[in-house]
Amino acid sequence: MPLLTFTDRGIYCERADVYIDPWKPVDRALLTHGHADHSRWGNKYYLTTRTAAPVINYRLGDIKIETVEFGEVKTINGVKFSFHPAGHIIGSAQIRVEYKGEIWVASGDYKLEDDGLSEAYEPIKCQHFITESTFGLPVYRWVPQEEVFADINDWWRANKEDGKVSVITAYALGKAQRLLEGLDPEIGTIYTHGAIENTNEVIRAQGIKLNDTVRVTKDVNKKDYPGNIVMATPGAVGQPWMKKFGQARVGAASGWMTLRGARRRRGADRGFVLSDHCDWPALLEAIALTEANNIYVTHGYTAIFSKHLRGLGLNAVELETEYEGELAEIESKAEPSESAENAGK
């Protein structure tokens, strides 16, 4: 039997009796990161990285959680587990699993571009590599993030000159903090939706410095918003919460902005192509760096990407899982504070 198997509860290591990012409740769960499709409530015991744990605790509530440092080896019934940077969001990890020379890596979600905020991606050599394919089509090719941030800041400046409020959407964990660090605070004030600010507070409490922000509340004078920028969750667009900003201009930052029509579907005037996942070339590069011959594709364009990998001579298979990649992060259910915020408080 292989060291890891794929079950109806998640990725399972029978010898250690643990699951990686399970989507149904289990006794022991090893989590790659805190996004909702990878960290779910109901497990008896959690293990994750020290920097991922605070947000997971915030999102899941009263849970029994243990942490490890990146690179630290934890041995369970002879199986060696270690967590290595995935570069996706703060604290995100790939989980390396080794037993008697057999090595697997479950990558969770990952990106190769160093955003300066998340721990930078670390390639891990293995025989078996479990990968996403959220953007596993040749059409998805990112430009350097510096160029995207320059475009966003230019858009904000132009809106300011027109006396408009700029609203840019981002999921509360990961993309929001990355955008926050890319915004130029010299242009004006950065306001935040409550769900985003709650996450910012958890991250700041870890000693991680972020640009200054002001929470959107009913106490802020509506006249203070024009010329400034508001970071909102995608779910807030079109809700009563938005009325306080008047005729705002809405931007959306996502890898999906590559596709025609995606901006319109997300209620945005302007789309910026920025993703916390790999594009097509980076996916192929990451797989090559592992030197693995056996590739397991868990979510995204699984059929097309697996077929391409087989054409390269790799043993690639597609798997049915409940991971959703950036779609889950953009269209996720409300954060604990978000329902009240969207109600227009």
UniProtKB/TrEMBL annotation:
InterPro entries per the UniProt record, alphabetical: MBL (IPR050698), RibonucZ/Hydroxyglut_hydro (IPR036866), Xnuc_lig_assoc (IPR026360)
Name of the protein this chain belongs to: mRNA 3-end processing factor
Domain of life: Bacteria
